[in-house]
């Protein structure tokens, strides 16, 4: 049997390669799932307040399955494990998924390896929105969202909408125009943000916290308000993997390969922006995840979006979950600092490993 | 001729105010091999953009396989017609077989992706274009000419009844120019593929294409067998070059 397969693989080298690649993808999925599960356990078990493993398990068993393990638990421990640690680690995973999927989408769509979820002004828009929310003297909540989350979400979407509309004026190719417009609008919004920070006085720290990103504010309410947007948006992007694949040879070639480029571009931009806006709203600006994770995945499995999107989702979740655990263990430093410290050297190493280099 | 795979009736087209083509009538029957030649800026690429449905005519009608091309979805066009672009720049590294696999996009299941039949088509395209030795290599590391062969293989994998090529030989050495021409003839003979190629090399056009379209001055200046469409007078008037200026000096003038 083995020799038969060997002979077949020798006569049809592509089939052998595909089988090999499938095995590799399967191993990566297993590694990713295990990494996510371990990150989840660490995120629930570790923290500044010690809760014994038995007590933690008892709390989880009761909350999840209604089981009584016969271990005494205190209401304080219950609140720490179930109301703080569990939603926090899940938020980190969901945000990591969203940023990595959005990054892969923007990179594929703009055909630019340096693109990340924030490239078209979403980051500046969200940050300005958050800063305005901090400065406003009112406090309201809407659909579980606080004012800060709501304004950040809206700011990101408004920014990308403005960029998209402005980019359609003028004779540049749509993708170049989008990138340049994104840069210009982003700079303008950054100026607004600088002004808001200058005027913010005592609230500066809160704005700064948003800029550095983190999961301090994570709660079940925020998670349940944004996770559906991120997860459904990511799934809908995965369904359109064919369009992303078509873009690999350029927009004109994509047209000839049967992709309705104008329509798919609008849909994918909307989905990726929505996912980014939701992620930014609950966690602030966390860099490197959306840039680095899709590149690592492409290096491992090639450019096929049908693999890149789900594996980016998995590894994005794992990376951000570990980054948050590390951030908490280091005395609750901003998670954006951790992703940058892990991400930057990793990315540099990656650039050296790719033989062809990254051209724009 | 109602059995044409491509027909243009009184077509005018351009970009903004600038009209590039006007009054173009053209019928291409199934299984034809047509070379499109003409000076730079004459409108060859515009003609291809009309046929491939990327550009809508300002006047007249373009029909593709019995339907107005404007009424067809991109995927319906892609199943009828494959296009080989001049160049393509890959933003990420991709193996040769991964690029050739893109030819299957119009056929593959949108959710499940390529299946056994698609793999077979990819393998066969790689073999026919002679890229077996390149499987597993990063397409971005290949020379321009080799990349052009990969783009030809993408179109072969697409298995559409019409193949349109935009100067498929510009980056190729003469060995590969001949190979690509032979491949196109083979696709035409064995699979009945209709081949339309924009060419700058009049010699290749004359040698490998039974029908030559000369595009000049916003319209079709000549349409016929090479001996007629590429006569000495025709070449002189369209390209303002005496054919003998293209010939090596040791070939005797008549």
Summarize the structure.
The complex is a heterodimer of chains A (360) and B (254). With 360 residues, chain A is mostly helical. Chain A has 15 helices and two strands.
Question: How does this structure look, described?
Answer:
- The complex is a heterodimer of chains A (360) and B (254).
- Chain A is an all-alpha fold and 360 residues long.
- In chain A, 76% of the residues lie in helices and 1% in strands.
- In chain A, helix 3 (53-65) crosses helix 4 (75-110) and helix 6 (147-167) runs antiparallel to helix 12 (261-283).
- The longest helix of chain A has 36 residues, at 75-110.
- The relative contact order of chain A is 0.15.
- Residues 1-6 and 355-360 of chain A have low confidence and may be disordered.
- In chain B, a hairpin with a 2-residue loop joins strand 9 and strand 10.
- Chain B has 254 residues and is of the alpha/beta class.
- In chain B, strands 6-7-8-3-9-10 form a 6-stranded mixed β-sheet, sandwiched between helices. Chain B has a 4-stranded antiparallel β-sheet with strand order 2-1-4-5, with helices on one face.
- Chain A binds chain B through residues 12-15, 17-18, 107-108, 111-113, 239, 241-242, 245-246, 248-250, 252-253, 255-261, 298, 302-304, 306, 354-356, 359, and chain B through 52, 54, 73-79, 81-83, 85, 88-95, 97-99, 101-103, 105-106, 108, 110-111, 113, 119, 122-123, 126, 132, 135-136, 138, 140-141, 151, 154, 158.
Shape of chain B: globular
Oligomer: heterodimer
How many E-type strands of chain A? Answer: 2
Percentage of residues in helical conformation of chain A = over 70%
Radius of gyration of chain A: 22 Å
Gyration radius over CA of chain B: 19 Å
Low-confidence regions of chain B = none
Overall number of strands of chain B: 10
Number of helices in the DSSP assignment of chain B: 9
| Main sheet makeup of chain B | 6 strands, mixed
So what's the overall shape of chain A?
A: globular
Which strand order do you get reading across the main beta sheet of chain B?
6-7-8-3-9-10
């Amino acid at each position: 049997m083995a020799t038969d397969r060997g002979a077949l693989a020798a006569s049809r080298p592509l089939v052998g390669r595909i089988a090999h690649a499938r095995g590799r993808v399967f191993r990566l999925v297993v590694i990713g799932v295990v990494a996510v599960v371990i990150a989840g356990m660490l995120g629930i078990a570790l923290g500044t307040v010690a809760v014994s493993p038995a007590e933690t398990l008892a709390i989880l068993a009761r909350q999840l399955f209604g089981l009584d393990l016969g271990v005494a638990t205190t209401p304080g421990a219950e609140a720490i494990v179930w109301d703080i640690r569990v939603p926090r680690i899940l938020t980190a995973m969901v945000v990591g998924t969203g940023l990595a999927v959005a990054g892969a989408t923007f990179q594929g769509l703009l055909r630019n390896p340096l693109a990340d979820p924030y490239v078209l002004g979403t980051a500046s828009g969200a940050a300005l929105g958050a800063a305005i929310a901090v400065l406003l003297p009112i406090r309201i909540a809407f659909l579980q969202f606080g004012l800060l989350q709501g304004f950040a979400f809206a700011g990101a979407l408004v920014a990308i909408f403005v960029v998209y509309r402005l980019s359609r004026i003028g004779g540049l190719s749509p993708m170049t125009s989008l990138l340049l417009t994104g840069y210009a609008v982003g700079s303008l919004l950054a100026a607004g943000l600088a002004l808001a920070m200058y005027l913010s006085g005592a609230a500066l720290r809160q704005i700064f916290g948003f800029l550095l990103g983190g999961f301090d504010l994570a709660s079940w309410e925020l998670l349940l308000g944004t996770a559906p947007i991120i997860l459904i948006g990511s799934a809908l992007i995965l369904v359109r993997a064919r369009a992303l694949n078509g873009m690999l040879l350029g927009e004109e070639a994509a047209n000839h390969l049967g992709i309705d480029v104008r329509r798919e571009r609008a849909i994918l931009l909307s989905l990726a922006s929505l996912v980014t806006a939701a992620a930014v709203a609950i966690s602030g600006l966390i860099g490197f995840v959306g840039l680095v994770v899709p590149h690592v995945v492409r290096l491992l499995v090639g450019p096929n979006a049908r693999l890149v999107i789900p594996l980016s989702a998995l590894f994005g979740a794992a990376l951000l979950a570990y980054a948050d655990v590390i951030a908490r263990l280091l005395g609750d430093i901003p998670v954006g600092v951790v992703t940058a410290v892990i991400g930057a050297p990793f990315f540099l190493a990656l650039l050296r490993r790719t033989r062809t280099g990254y051209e724009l | 001729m109602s059995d044409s795979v491509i027909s243009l009736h009184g077509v005018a087209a351009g970009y903004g105010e600038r009209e590039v083509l006007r009054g173009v009538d053209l019928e291409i029957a199934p299984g034809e091999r047509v070379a499109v030649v003409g000076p730079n800026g004459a409108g060859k690429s515009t003609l291809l953009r009309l046929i491939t449905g990327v550009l809508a005519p300002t006047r007249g009608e373009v029909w593709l396989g019995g339907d107005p091309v404007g009424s067809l979805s991109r995927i319906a066009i892609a199943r009828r017609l494959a296009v080989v672009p001049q160049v393509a720049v890959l933003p990420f590294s991709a193996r040769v077989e991964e690029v050739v696999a893109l030819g299957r996009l119009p056929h593959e299941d949108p959710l499940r992706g390529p299946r056994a039949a698609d793999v077979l088509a990819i393998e066969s395209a790689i073999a026919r274009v002679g890229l077996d030795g390149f499987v597993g290599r990063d397409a971005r590391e290949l020379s321009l000419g080799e990349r052009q062969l990969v783009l030809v293989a993408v179109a072969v994998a697409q298995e559409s009844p019409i193949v349109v090529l935009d100067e498929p030989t510009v980056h190729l050495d003469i060995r590969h120019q001949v190979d690509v021409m032979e491949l196109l003839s083979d696709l035409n003979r064995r699979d009945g593929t209709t081949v339309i190629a924009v060419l700058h090399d009049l010699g290749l056009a004359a040698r490998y294409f039974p029908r030559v379209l000369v595009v000049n001055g916003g319209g079709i200046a000549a349409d016929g067998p090479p001996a007629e469409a590429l006569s000495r007078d025709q070449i002189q008037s369209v390209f303002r070059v005496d054919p003998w200026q293209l010939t090596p000096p040791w070939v005797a003038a008549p």
